[in-house]
Amino acid sequence: MPSHREGFGTSIIEASLLKLPVLCSDTYGLRDTIIDGETGFRHKVNDVDSIIVQMEKLINDKNLRKRQGENGRQY
Description:
Elements: H1 10-17, E1 22-25, E2 40-43, H2 48-60, H3 62-74
Helix pairs in contact: 1-3
């Protein structure tokens, strides 16, 4: 969820509920919705390269996606 600012990261919480790993901006309103590296990854705001790096980690590692999704559900 690339964003400049969010009031509350409801869609991130819903994705975690469904055991999906999360990729979101490191910005107000989203920081507390995940544990970086455990339930998903944060990326720098307005930094496309940062988003790509984090996406590639999830695309290339099925076990990481599963583990982060399960951790997100617990969180």
